Request: fold
Amino acid sequence: MKKRSTKRTLGSMFLAFESFLIFFGTLVAFGLKFGDAATVWGVGLSLSFVAILLPAVLGRPGGFIVGWVLQFVLLGISIWTATVNGVGVFYIFLAIIALSMWIWAMIAGATIDAARIAWERNNSVDNGQNGTGEVFRIENEAPQEK
Reply:
């Protein structure tokens, strides 16, 4: 089994959650008539699909940058939505919470990955089959002859 970084795992879990958040936000925007139906559904579903497909590229170079761009695009759209309708202020609130959760996922994941690498290096741990370090090592010493 391939070993994945905690940063990538946390980012992937958050983006899966965020895709649902975007979809339900699209339903609210459609119901409150923030724009014509085709535009609301086109933008909302496109961003939702990007959020659900983005975990596939998080491990590649530039993948996390695309995640950051998505967060700031959502923040910008929420600010624009607040100018269209006063209820849109709720979208700003959700975008700030989502951005904060993304920041936490990136910082916590990087910190855990760095700590795991340091621990493995200090303890000379070989990786097990499941990608986790061995915690116990059984050593069988031969009895010494006198």
Q: What stands out?
A: The CA atoms of residues 4 and 52 lie 18 Å apart. The radius of gyration is 22 Å. The mean pLDDT is 85. The helical segments are 6-31, 37-53, 63-84, 89-122.
